[in-house]
Amino acid sequence: MSDDKEKPSVSGTEDFPLADDGDDSLALSNGRTPKPAQPLPREEPPEDPEEKARLITQVLELQNTLDDLSSRVETVKEESLKLKAENQVLGQYIQNLMGSSSVFQSSQPKAPKQ
């Protein structure tokens, strides 16, 4: 049996402009040029001096809190690195002690001498 299925033709793509065709103008299928995107209209909050002062105070407090937390994170990172280094030193010390002590040597019974 032979497979006589037809492959889809790609010849229809000549109708579509490609990015490198050199035509810089954009046109919709109806011939119109699209309008550039416009930002959404902003709703201006009512000018309430007390509300504005409260918001400014809240923003400043949050900035201070963020600064405090950032410095705390840096301090904890430094402390963590110091502790990791100390743990490595202590681990090496314990390995050396265990290696030099007969108590921690292999627990397998020694083969009898013949």
Question: What does it look like?
Answer:
The chain has 114 residues and is mostly helical. 46% of the residues lie in helices and 0% in strands. The mean pLDDT is 76. The chain has a domain of 46 residues. The termini are far apart.
Relevant terms:
mainly alpha, elongated, 1 helix, 114 residues
Quickly describe the structure.
The chain contains one helix and no strands. With 114 residues, the chain is mainly α.
Topology:
Elements: H1 49-100
Protein name: Short coiled-coil protein A
Keywords: Coiled coil, Cytoplasm, Golgi apparatus, Membrane
Coiled coil: 52-86
The helix fraction, in percent, is 40-55%
Find the count of extended strands (DSSP E, 2+ residues).
0
Per DSSP, the total helix count is 1
- Find the structural class using helix and strand composition: mainly alpha
Q: Would you identify the regions where 5 or more consecutive residues have pLDDT less than 50?
A: none
Radius of gyration: 38 Å
Largest sheet: none
Give the mean pLDDT. Answer: 76
Beta strand %: under 5%
